[in-house]
From TrEMBL:
Keywords: Cell inner membrane, Cell membrane, Membrane, Transmembrane, Transmembrane helix, Transport. Part of the tripartite ATP-independent periplasmic (TRAP) transport system. The keyword Transmembrane applies. It is a multi-pass membrane protein. Pfam families: DctM (PF06808). This is TRAP transporter large permease protein.
Length: 432
């Protein structure tokens, strides 16, 4: 009865408009109190303890730093210089600007690890450029929103950091390495329908009339941005710093590029950068800490084991259960953000992972792929919200185009599910 009340209270609060983190915390705290009966006030001591326990984990320190990195590089003008460099490589022509948008978004993923931050940075440059070349605003917003979804797969990734905190045996470096090949596969899979749709519908008629940036000049201007992922990922691989320390190094590198090299960031801009990144980091970390209360109530009420046993013994078999989990998470990803999905469902799914002896790193990649799919699948697609706001179009206008990109990404998810080595080969090769 109390376990049912936990989920009913959570859903009612969420439907009533209560922020998802607060809904998890309130529902969890109420059920902890009810479960302790007469000793409910003593039992409620678990609420502040688990609030702190959910937050007091060293890998989580990297989250505000990588959010800050995304804000710094957004304002530094790195995205615009990377766009010029990409255009100088692929040239002008129908369908080339969508290809550039996806390629630059993938590269920005190696800097910030935040999908919405990349959607804002790349969308601010590419949507206007695509509009001048004759692309419909809804199509441009769709491409940018989908492209930004690659950022939680290509390291550094905030989603992988959260997952590593929740799951034993899945280190941050191993997850970062495991996400590289699937992330590139997603980017390539998104390029194919984007270019095909653009050419099929005659988009980008004015693109070929615009001048092609000179290669060497574009390379020189973009070199500082190109060096950022090399510094972050290379430094971690060489053992110079941990992922958390890498985030701090990236912050100072971004400030140096923006304030000294490009001189696009002034002292007055620092307050706005710190304020925006602080607000976003605060939201993420408060949701993480409140989810600790929800997860504790799940374990206290004995919900996890019966659910796991029911799924494992459902008769669907290993692949049937995996497909069921994937279908469930795709549906949930349409209405919940990625961090919330991880925090709510990983504790429930972990016993199933152990039952079937699935590799925790591979399963983390599968979950992240599904979350990435939800980031540009209406009705609640955080990346698509950002790009649609920049383009000035409604999300319903993107459905015509987004379905093709969703189908392409589903094929990648099925491929990584069928061949786990697509995710596990690189971390094994690197010795993680």
């Amino acid at each position: 009865m109390i376990a049912t009340l936990l989920f009913v209270a959570f859903l009612v609060l969420m439907v009533a408009g209560v922020p998802i983190g607060a809904a998890m915390g309130l529902a969890g705290a109420a059920c902890i109190a009810l479960a302790n009966g007469d000793a409910q006030w003593f039992g409620l001591l678990a609420v502040p303890q688990n609030f702190y326990a959910g937050l007091g984990k060293y890998p989580l320190l990297a989250i505000p730093m990588f959010v800050l990195v995304g804000a710094i590089f957004d304002r530094s003008g790195v995205a615009a210089r990377l766009v010029n460099f990409a255009i100088s490589i692929v040239g002008r022509g129908p369908g080339m600007l969508p290809l550039v948008a996806i390629g630059v978004a993938m590269f920005m993923g190696g800097i910030s690890g935040s999908g919405p931050a990349t959607a804002a940075a790349v969308g601010g440059v590419m949507i206007a450029a695509m509009a001048r070349a004759g692309y419909p605003m809804a199509f441009s917003a769709t491409v940018v929103g989908a492209a930004a979804a690659t950022d939680i797969l290509i390291p550094p990734s905030i989603a992988f950091i959260v997952y590593s905190v929740l799951v034993p045996g899945a280190s941050v470096p191993a997850l970062f390495a495991a996400g590289m090949i699937p992330g590139v596969m997603v980017g390539l899979a998104l390029m194919v329908p984007s270019v095909w749709l653009a050419r099929r519908h005659g988009m980008g008629a004015g693109e070929a009339q615009q001048p092609r940036p000179p290669f060497w000049r574009s390379l020189r201007e973009a070199s500082w941005g190109l060096a950022a992922p090399v510094l972050i990922l290379g430094g971690m691989r060489l053992g110079w710093f941990t992922p958390t320390e890498a985030a701090v190094v990236a912050v100072f590198y971004g400030l140096f590029v923006g304030m000294v090299v490009y001189r696009t960031i002034g002292v007055r801009d620092l307050f706005a950068i710190l304020r925006d990144s602080g607000e976003l980091s605060g939201v993420i970390l408060v949701v993480v800490s409140l989810a600790g209360i929800f997860a504790y109530s799940l374990s206290t009420l004995g919900v996890i084991d019966p659910v796991a046993k029911a799924v494992a013994n459902s008769g669907l078999g290993e692949f049937g259960v995996l497909l069921l989990i994937m279908a469930m998470l795709v549906a949930i990803g349409m209405v919940l953000d990625g961090v919330s999905i991880f925090l709510i469902f990983v504790p429930l799914l972990w016993p199933i992972v152990q039952h079937f002896q699935w590799d925790p790193v591979w399963f983390g990649v599968i979950l992240t792929l599904l979350v990435a799919l939800g980031q540009f699948t209406p009705p609640m697609a955080v990346n698509l919200m950002v790009s649609c706001r920049i383009a000035g179009v409604g999300m319903e206008d993107t459905v015509r185009w987004v379905r093709w990109l969703v189908a392409s990404m589903v094929l990648v998810i099925l491929a990584v599910s069928a061949w786990p080595q697509l995710a596990l080969w690189l971390p094994e090769r690197l010795g993680y």
